[in-house]
Design a protein that fits this description.
Length: 302
């Protein structure tokens, strides 16, 4: 069972979101059994461009930026949109809600998503302007505990130029993990460039799971040979292979800061991030590529 635990909905050349049919087709072509589709709540429509604006190009004081300066993924995707998308094939598509602490009563937004829309987790994007230990999120974390779902907190690199990378330091997640020991927390991307903080926070808190999505891109773009292997060895030795999750960002992705991939990346990512390492047992590889995700999400699968 292969589970992509970290996926976003890409934009097609015409600026429209990929359809559920197209998404499932890409999963089939890449040998993916299930995918976690992440909602996005990071954009204030009054100050930041919406995903549709980004598809066309960004408006700035200097005029329009060309399309290749924009991002080929939704910059804001509502819980309703995620739920509707995943409803197309609820056995293979698992939706996560998202919330920004600037929203009025963010806990109510999350409660509605979990109880009425059937979403199975929550994704936070600190680089949109908040720290994960923001006290306004305490009720959100309590709701996740109440509904027995995980919260995924973006750490490390930023995806878009208008985001603020300082908020992504994994050290701030330690407050959340310590204050809410019953909460399952996922931290992302190996925490780069704060790899030591990422490892220390994960090691120190047994309720933290680690996401290795995109670490191959990070190794290449930032010219850090051996980053993935060194990180994986440390994570396996200190955190354990049973708390590591694999993901891809989705079957179709374009990020100006990092590049592009299509469904062929599914296998390339598995091989580079997991399969090539002889220090991982066969069982460890199976767990990282899907078994851990199924256990964390408490899914009943054959």
């Amino acid at each position: 069972m292969i589970v992509d635990f970290h996926s976003h909905l890409g934009l097609k050349d015409n600026g429209e979101l990929v359809t559920p049919q197209e998404f499932i087709h890409a999963m089939d072509a890449g040998g993916i059994d299930m995918t976690v589709v992440l909602g996005i709540d990071q954009v204030d429509g009054g100050t930041k461009p919406t995903w549709s604006d980004l598809a066309k190009g960004l408006t700035t004081k200097k005029g329009w930026l060309p399309q290749d300066s924009a991002i080929g993924a939704a910059a804001n995707l509502s819980d309703v949109e995620v739920a509707s998308f995943c409803k197309f094939n609820s056995e293979r598509l698992i939706g996560f809600a998202s919330v920004h602490p600037d929203r009025y009563r963010p806990d109510l937004k999350v409660e509605y998503a979990l109880s009425n829309l059937g979403l199975k987790g929550v994704k936070l994007y600190p680089h949109s302007g908040f720290y994960p230990n923001d006290r306004r999120l305490d009720r959100v974390y309590e709701k996740c505990i109440e509904f027995n779902v995980p919260v995924m907190i973006h750490t490390g690199i930023k995806a878009q130029r208008w985001q603020w990378i300082k908020y992504n330091n994994p050290i701030y997640v330690d407050d959340v993990a310590t204050n809410f020991p019953e909460l399952d927390i996922i931290i992302c991307h190996g925490g780069f460039p704060w790899c030591d903080e990422f490892l220390t926070v994960a090691y120190s808190n047994p309720n933290i799971w680690v996401d290795i999505t995109f670490m191959d891109y990070i190794e290449k773009v930032f010219k850090r040979p051996g980053l993935v292997e060194n990180s994986m060895r440390a994570l396996v030795n200190l955190v354990g292979a049973d708390r590591i999750l694999w993901g891809t960002e989705g079957p179709e992705m374009y990020l100006p800061l990092f590049g592009h991939h299509d469904f062929k990346y599914y296998q390339k990512s598995q091989d580079f991030l997991v399969n090539r390492f002889d220090f991982l047992k066969s069982r460890d590889k199976q767990n990282i590529l899907g078994g851990n995700a199924i256990r964390l999400l408490r899914l009943n699968v054959c």
